[in-house]
Amino acid sequence: MSHSLAAHFDGQNIVPDEPVQLPVGQQLRIQVEIVGPSPPQFAELLGFASDLPDAPPDLSAQHDHYLYGTPKR
User: Fold this and answer.
1) What is the C-alpha to C-alpha distance for residues 49 and 59, in angstroms, rounded to an integer?
2) Is the model's pTM score more than 0.85?
3) Which of 14, 16, 25, 52 has the fewest CB within 10 Å, making it most exposed?
4) How many CB atoms lie within 10 A of CB 6?
């Protein structure tokens, strides 16, 4: 049986980031995969929006106007 869980290293021990339901004394085989930092939320969307050739220059400030038709601020 295999199970994947998120964890971090505190300098001495590997600490699960979520509760783990295992019997006490259960033998385990652990494979460590180092995960790089995740990109900021919406980074892909922001990169796409910044590359739009026809985008208005005030898109970030007036997005409600362009999305929903509200009056410009």
Assistant:
1) 9
2) no
3) 25
4) 8
CA dihedral angle for residue 43, residue 15, residue 1, residue 36, rounded to 10 degrees: 30
The residue with tokens 């790089």 is: 36
Q: Is 73 helix (H, G, I), strand (E, B) or coil?
A: coil
Rounded CA-CA distance 68/71 in Å is 9
Unique residue bearing structure tokens 């208005």: 56
Confidence tier at 6 by pLDDT (50, 70, 90)? very high
Q: What is the pLDDT of residue 65?
A: 87
- Rounded to the nearest 10°, the torsion over CA 30, 36, 41, 45 is -120
User: Backbone phi, then psi, for 9, in 5-degree steps?
Assistant: -105, 125
Q: In angstroms, what is the C-alpha Rg of the chain?
A: 23
